[in-house]
Design goal:
alpha+beta, Jelly Rolls, Arc Repressor Mutant, subunit A, four-stranded antiparallel β-sheet, 8 helices, 11 strands, 42% helix
Length: 238
């Protein structure tokens, strides 16, 4: 499944031929994880990096009192713990669904970065785009209503999954529970439930059995005040 990683990186920088072959060679040591398994642990020892090839995952932090904050969702093609190449991982990563992960030796990725500038530039831009998503989430948590937060997240995931070929006609697998949404968006379970019902009543979405269908894209975009520029995805439009 190296093409998944290549396609993901090529969203952020052009490379082909020998560079693509070098990226393809990184994808070795496949491991399977069940939904709910931890793929990486906050503060854990240095280990091979992980590329998500199949499935979805999420970043999270646990507070001392047991509450969880979800920091972002991960999709196929993402290097899920790139931070740990140079820094200690400051959060954990869990499988949202069954996941297939490739383990990439740290030294091989460092060698590739040093020897292949186009790939290094793509990795750097991917990191910057990931930081832009985090900033957008902060804006949402601080200034958007619950209705706007959920609408914005659904727009975001729809476009991100489309970018890797996993969304079709505004329909995609996004198997989050109301608890996941609450933990990601800083809402109570009751507030999340009521807000999802409001989005359904307004005929903006259908969301059940792990599938998200956007019924009214312009309406959902307007509800979330969504501008896809921060995603830095080629061809992504509102």
């Amino acid at each position: 499944m190296a093409p998944r990683l290549i396609a993901s990186l090529q969203r952020f920088g052009a490379f082909s031929g020998p560079e693509a072959a070098a990226v393809q060679a990184l994808v070795t040591g496949l491991r399977d994880f069940a939904a709910g398994d931890d793929l990486a642990i906050e503060g854990g020892p240095a280990s091979p990096l992980r590329v998500l090839l199949e499935g979805q995952a999420f970043r999270y932090r646990m507070l001392p009192d047991g509450r969880r904050q979800i920091l972002g969702f991960l999709i196929p093609g993402d290097i899920i713990d790139l931070q740990s190449l140079f820094l200690t991982l400051d959060h954990s990563i869990a499988a949202l669904t069954a996941c297939e992960v490739s383990l990439v030796p740290r030294a091989r990725l460092v060698d590739l970065i040093q020897s292949t500038p186009p790939v290094a530039h793509a990795l750097w831009r991917a990191s910057l785009a990931d930081a832009a998503i985090t900033r957008e989430w902060l804006v949402g948590m601080g200034r958007r209503s619950a209705y706007g937060r959920i609408a914005h997240l659904f727009c975001e995931m729809s476009l991100r999954l489309r970018s890797v070929g996993l969304e079709n006609h505004h329909r995609c697998a996004f198997p989050v529970t109301q608890l996941h949404l609450s933990d990601a968006l800083g809402l109570s379970a009751v507030h999340t439930n009521r807000t999802l019902q409001a989005l359904r009543v307004d005929n903006l979405i259908a969301f059940q059995s792990g599938e998200l269908r956007v019924l009214d894209w312009p309406g959902l975009r307007a509800a979330g005040d969504f501008d896809p520029a921060y995603l830095h995805l080629k061809g992504a439009t509102a």
